[in-house]
Structures are given as structure tokens and as C-alpha cells.
Amino acid sequence: MKKLLNSAVLKHILIMLFVFSSSPLAISQRKDTDAKVALWNFKKCRERVSTEKASIRILYAFNAENIKDKDTWIDEGQLKIGKNITQYSSRFVELNEDSLANWLNTHPKSNVWPAARWLQGYKPGHWIEYQYSTILTKNNLLEEFATMPDAIESDNQKYAEQLPLQDWSILDESKEVCGYTCRKAVCHWRGRDYVAWFTTDIPVSAGPWKFGGLPGLIMKIADSTNTYSWEATEVKNGTFPIYEPRGAKYKESTRKNVQELQRKLNENYFKTTGTEVIQYKTGKIMNSRKHPYSQLELE
Hints:
twelve-stranded mixed β-sheet
């Protein structure tokens, strides 16, 4: 009887582990859309405009499977903090733009240019909204500049929101993140529960993506399902240019409209953009692959 009981318990545990590990909410959101990067946007970024100089830059691993291996990261986010402006954008994308700009400068007579010259990152040629958006905060206002993928690159959009966005509860817990002693804070925001770790050693009310509103810099944050996560890997003082958002002009829009389009692009890119891709061997039109997708802002 005891052996049968132990066997039943073990079977139950194995089933629970399988369900948890196979659930799309148990792992970080990956780059699964069929959308590709719009290379034309990179070419137009050859001459970027700096609006302000930041004195500190924080790098974050975004949705990293292995914090020590950048090839497993969806992105390396960068938070640049200036006197009047705070900007969150992709470090991987900025490095790529610099590399491509250098190639164009050394090949001035070329009528073609190479594909994106990626240095690191998971599926570097693919688009995901959290990598191809720039978050700018100024005068208690947050703006998102959303760069769309290849087939609809002319549909880049922007919208604004008032700060602060999150309502935090600070707890009496602490731990070290990236060499800084951090305190714990929790909140429920737009359909998800978040745990953040912030440090008062860097007294700025900012963090990765749209997160902020705490009495110190957010060094680590994740939702309760670990579908989305950021962790600081470097804090550096210096002079860092804050560039105007890259690419084509951005149409005035709303958060609802932008996120509805982003959701459709993730769920069925070909249908949303009206793109037809013919399979070489069969001659049949390809459909977007079905994949689990859970948008960060659920409300």
C-alpha cells in the first residue's frame, strides 16, 4: 500500500511539473512572431540627433534564459538618465545602428547595404514590440514611440500617458542586485502582479520599460508568472547621448490602438499585414505559425 501511495504521489508530482513547464505563462515571452525587422529604418538612422546627454546608463537583461549568455536574451535594454529626460531603449538595436552606419560611411557609393549587422540577441532578425519601442519620460509625461516591423514600417506610432503609472507597496525585505542593496516593492498593474527590487543608492524614480514611481532606481522586476522580466547587469557613469526615436515619422495614436495592432502582429503577422509568402517546395501560401502570446499589458 505504501509503495502504491508513493507511486501515485510521484506520478502526481511529475504531472504537475510537466504542466507547469509546458505552460506558456511559466516561461518568459519569446520572439515567436513571423515579423521581420524593417532594415530601411536602420538606414534612415545613419545620422541620429542627440537631444540631451545622460550622466548615467543602466543596462538590463530582458527576458533572459541565462543571465550570463546574451544570446539567450530577448534584448539588452538601456536606461539613460539625463537632467530633463529619461529614455529606455534597446542597446542591441543601438549597437546595430552604429555598425550599419559605419559600413555605409565606408561604402558611400554603394546602392545596397547589408542586412542588420547584429552582435548578440535571441532571433536578432525578428521583431518584438518591447525591443522596437522607445520609452521617453519628460515633465511628468511618458511617451512610447512604437516602431513597426517590415511590412508596415510606415505605420510607426506614438502616444503619451501621465506619470506615475504604478501604485507600489514597499515591503520590509532586501537583497543585492548588481552590487546594490535593494528593497522589495509590489504592485498590481494592468492585469499583472509585479515584484520589483529598487535601490535608494541611486535616487531616481525610474526603471526599465514603463516602470518607475519608487524612491529609487528599479534594478530588477518581473511579473508573478515570469513572462516578462528585467534585471540590471551594469550601472555606469559617463556621458551617453539620448537620441531622438529612430526611423520614420511617428503618427499620433493611442495606447489602445498601438497595442491592438501589436497584438495582431504577434498573433497573425501575415493576415494583419496582408503579406503573402509562398512556400518554395509546394507553391502554397504560408500562414502565420500558431504560438502562445501573452501581451505585457493585459488591460
